[in-house]
Design brief:
6 strands; alpha/beta; 49% helix; six-stranded mixed beta sheet; binds uracil
Length: 197
């Protein structure tokens, strides 16, 4: 391992320690675990961003391990995403009570952690899972119904929003467009991977 990679790994480990000790907003008072994210921060080219941990994520400390996460994993595996290619994080890292939407103040308090992750991972592609992530990352008035599946180039990132897995579970009719959106991501990722080979 190069010195640079070693340094990056150490900084990430230190980041996790600090993030897990965060008390910057009231969500921290009700949490069991801070959910930092999951995946491969050292090699990820795609960063998926959800909303915030649900019950199972709060209990385990791992992102997207509930029913929605399992559905997402199934699709990623089906589309032959390699685990080394992605990382999954959230807008807020502690569970909002009863899975309510995080408040603006909670999101603003938590976003510096995500910004640090984006900078460290430096993904080529960002995928916003659902309305809350799209509003924070792409456009505060983002309308999933009209704008999902459309690439936005911002800074060095290609960004796309699609349905949140929980919305797909609630409404299986969304599966087709969800699949189409993730095919677009995989296609762009394949191009990126070949370019950098
Ligand atoms: N929903 C999210 O937005 N994130 C998770 O980690 C789990 C469920």
């Amino acid at each position: 391992m190069t010195d640079e990679a070693k340094n990056k790994r150490e900084l990430w480990a230190q980041f996790e320690v600090e993030c897990k000790a965060c008390w910057k907003c009231p969500l921290s008072e009700g949490r069991t675990h801070v959910v930092v994210g999951r995946g491969c921060p050292e090699t990820a080219k795609v960063l998926f961003i959800g909303e915030g941990p649900g019950k199972e994520e709060d209990l385990t400390g791992k992102a997207f391990v509930g029913a929605g996460g399992k559905l997402l994993d199934l699709l990623l595996r089906g589309l032959r995403f390699s685990e080394a290619d992605y990382y999954i994080a959230n807008i807020v890292k502690c569970r909002p009570p009863n899975n309510r939407d995080p408040s603006d103040a909670e999101m603003q308090a938590c976003l510096p952690w995500l910004r640090w992750q984006v900078k460290s991972i430096a993904p080529k592609i960002i995928v916003c899972l659902g309305r809350i992530a799209a509003a924070q990352i792409m456009d505060k008035n983002f309308m999933l119904i009209k704008q999902r599946g459309i690439w936005l180039k911002k800074a060095d990132f290609d960004i796309l929003a699609t349905w949140h897995p929980a919305a797909v579970l609630r409404n299986p009719g969304k599966k087709i467009t969800w699949f189409d959106d993730l095919v677009k991501v995989k296609t762009l990722l394949n191009g990126e991977t070949q370019d950098s080979d």
